[in-house]
Every structure is written in structure tokens, then in C-alpha cells.
Design a protein that fits this description.
alpha+beta, nine-stranded mixed sheet, six-stranded mixed sheet
Length: about 625
Amino acid sequence: MSRYTKQDIFNMVEEEDVEFIRLQFTDMYGTLKNVAITSSQLEKALDNECMFDGSAIEGFARMEDSDMYLRPDLNTFEIFPWRPQQGKVARIICDVYTSDRKPFEGDPRYILKKAVEDATQMGYRFDVGPECEFFLFNQDEDGQPTTISMERAGYFDLGPIDLGENARRDMVLTLEDMGYEIEASHHEVAPAQHELAPIYAVANIAVDHNQLIMETLKKVAYRHGLQCLLHEKPFAGVNGSGKHDNWSITTDDGINLLEPGKTPHENIQFLLVLTCILKAVDTHADLLRESAADVGNDHRLGANEAPPAILSVYLGEQLEDVLSQLISTGAATHSISGQRLETGVKSLPDFMKDATDRNRTSPFAFTGNKFEFRMVGSQDSVSQPNVVLNTIVAEAFAEACDELEKADDFDMAVHDLIKKYATEHQRIVFNGNGYSDEWVEEAERRGLPNIKSMVDAIPALNTEKAVALFEKFGVFTKAELDSRVEIEYETYAKEINIEAKAMIDIATKQIIPAVIRYTTTLAESINAVKAACGADISVQTEILMEVSDLLADTKNALSKLEEVTAQGAAMAQGREQAVFYRDEVMTAMKALRTPVDKLEMLVDKSMWPMPSYGDLMFEV
């Protein structure tokens, strides 16, 4: 049932003095785009007559002609509360249609909506709740963003050390004013890092909500003199930001298929659904990993409390034990109950530990009655991860149905199928420490893929297995998958090229001149002291020699980076270029950073041209 009619929107625009309307849509990656119109053009827009040039949008032109239409989804009409109260601004999310007025099959929103509609016709729905992590940094006196924060707060800390508390509260209240339910918000582990968790919704609606939530975070932060940064890994050696995709399956009559109950060993429906999901994740681990691949996430995954790049499923002690019983004996006869957790404080009672207590190190963790996919990057749309997740699970369900529908003894067939899936895909289950080096070795022994970079993840998109999967369910054609592969390789190379050129510019124009000034000052000091009194100048000389050696290392590394960046830019676009940027350009960038990091610790702070790590994180 529609939330609004055309007339409702006309009335609200007039009554609320809305002057501008943003017609929003996304590119292939889920990046938000928009066309702004005045209220005088609203009737034309609501009649689906607004056109745009699809050739200018990443991922569109390669699959269809350039003339495309925006078809507003009336249910997404929202008035922005942070805009002026006179001449207000609203938005409507749009579906993309081709010039012959058919849905554009490359539109991420269309793809996800189609998957959700298919599920609805089969009698179930996918619910999603994406938790957003982000950083808040100061602005300078001109309102320009910096990467400096003066707070020192950590996980779940409060004010006054949590200096982002007021902004975070305002974000929640602003979203609630627009009708969104926010379950919780809190300070995260790293300084200046925060999290906001909305209430779950049907997958395609949750993705729409997440787009506006990301925009709201930035707008409200700016109002508080702060800059919201959604980059996955701003700082080496410090926790990065992800977007935890909480995912569940519910029937059309409200039954959560991932609710194990108090005795999961007796819940046959739950065990069948669970083992189908294990099969889906194990079979398509490479594809699920690819759905969370981007340049920023390459820095995050496998570091500082982020999930590893290895797909595994955490089930908790209780469910792992049930599966072990099924695998070893063919029958599960009991379920482990929660154990007593002693507080160690006499005045406080002991607690019962949940037998399904989650594992933060797992990329795909069962958390009581849902799964949490923790690989997704903080700046990404959750559309593609949920398209992949929904499709691979649908395939597992379809194959299970095909086998069970032809069974003579249904109950026995279900039992045998659960055991079969649990046995064949037990390698994907891991309840241990996903951060450890031992797990990397164990995963390799199990044959699980360890896909460390976006470049290595991209080929999963158009394997024979992936093409067969997506074409079977009408999600993507082979041509569309091939196009996505090509675009993702180009995107990777472009982003690394931009970062490399920025690094070259900073090193050439700021860092090297600053170090030269410092060495000159140091040399003049040595000569002055020596001429004045002949005192011991060994310390100054030693520092000068060390800084000069590092300056030479910096110049050599810079020259190498300039060389390989130019080589990469001259290559033809495609996989070979992307691999070159990963292997050669990224390696050269890391080599340049090494001496520069050491120089930062030696050069006089007043001469260093940018904030130090201490300034960035703690203002110290």
C-alpha cells in the first residue's frame, strides 16, 4: 500500500513551502546521485518525464543507451529538516528507466527490489538493519574539513571525553523527526569514532533508509562544526569503520526462520534453513567477499578488530554442538544451555551466559535470531551485499526444495539433507579468533579462500558459477556481469592513481621542503655551537645524519612512485592495469610512507607541514 499519492505530495510541497526537490538515484556502486528541480517542475517529475544522460553515470552507459528517465518512488518523499524553513528542500528516491520506458536492469535499486519481490511471491521476506560506523573530525575556521579531533573517548564512553555526543544525539533526533527508528547510538573503539544503528526493515527499504542516514550524518555533523568521515580506514594501526549488515528471513505471516527456540536440536525447520545458509556462504564465499570489496576496505579487513578477508560463519557453542552431533551420529539429541558467568564481585549476582553469544572477529556471525555480515565498508551501500546474500540463499533453498519435493519419505529426506549439508559445509563454521594468524593457516588447510584485495575479489563476479547463479534467478546477465568486472577494475586503478598523485604532490611540495628546512637549521645550529664554544655536538650531528639519510630514502622512494604511477596511467584499462596498481604503485606508496613516518618522529613539530598522528587522534 502506497504511503503517499501524487496529490499528497503536491499538497505537502505547497503547505510546507518546499522550493527544491532532489530526485535521487544511485550508480552501480550505490553512490548517491541526484537531479535538483524546482517545485514548478514537480508535476513533470511525478509524471515520469524527467530525463538525464546515463552515459555520465558509472556503470550505466556500457549497458544501455544514454537517454534515461527517473521514475519517483512516491513513498520515499522526505523534507530535509536541516534545510531553511522557508524555501525548503525535499527528496524523492527514483527508479531508473530506459528510453523505451522499461526498468533499467543495471539500476541497483531495481535489482534489489526485484529480489525482494521474488521472495515475497514465495512467501518470505529479507529484513536488514545496517549499523553505521563513522568518524567525526573538526573543521577549521573557514568551515573546511580537517582530520583533527580533540576527544580521547573509547568504546561506550560518555561526555565530557566523548565530544561527539551532542552531534550524535542530534543525528538521532533529526532522523526520528523524519520518521526513522534508531535502535541505539554510541561511541566506538577508536577516538572520534561513532556508531548509529537503525531498526531493521525490508531489505530494499533499509537500503533507501541507509542512503538518507549517511547524508544526515554529514549534514548534522557540519551543523556542529564537525566533519563526518565514512572512509573505512583513515588511520593505520587504529580501528577502521564498517557497516554491519544484520540480515534475517521472515515468512509472510511473521515467523522468523532464524529463530532457533530454546531447543534448536528439535527445530527441524530452523536447522534446514541454517544448513542451507551454510551451504550458500561456503559455495559462494568468493562472491560474498566481492560484494564488500572496495579500495578503502582493502585497508580495513584483517586489521584492528575488523573481520578477516576470509569468509567463515560463527554459530556459537550451542549450534556448533548441534551440528557436531548431526555430523558424528546422524542425530541431535540435546542443546547446550547457557553457562553461568561469575562476576567476581560478591555484591553482584552471577549471570547466565548466552550460548549463542556472538564473536566480534567473525565476518558472518549468528547473533541469536539473525546473521550479521560485518565485512561491508562504512561508505558503501548495502544493496550489493544483500543482492548477493539473498540470491545465494535463494539458490540453496531452491536446490533443497527440488530434492525434498521428490522424496517418498519427507521427514527422513529432511533429516538426511540437514546432515548432508552440515557435513559437506562444516569447513565454513569457525567459532575461534578470526584475528589470529593461526586461523589464516587453518583456513588455508580447510580450503577457504583468503581474498585480500579488491583486485583479487573482482573475478568472482563473472565466473561460470556466478553467471549461472544470477541468470537462473534473473538478477544479472553475463553481459552485465562482464561490464561490472570491467568497471570495477577501472575504478580500482583510478582511485589508486588519485591517491598516488596526491601522495606525490604532498611529498614534493610539503614534506621534502620541510625536512630540508629542518636539516638546514640543524646544520646552522651545529656550526654556530662549534664556532661559539667547541662543545660536544655529537647528538646534533647524529640527528642530522639520520634525518639526511631518511631524506635521501624519501627522495628515492618518491622517484620510484612517480615512475610506476606514470607507467600505470599509460596502460590500457582493465585487469592488467588494476593488478599493476596493486602490485607496483601500492608497493611504491608504502615504500614512500616508511621513511616519511620516521621523519615525522624526528623533525621539529613546528616545521612539520601537517598534523602528526598525535594531533590527528588526540590533539597532543
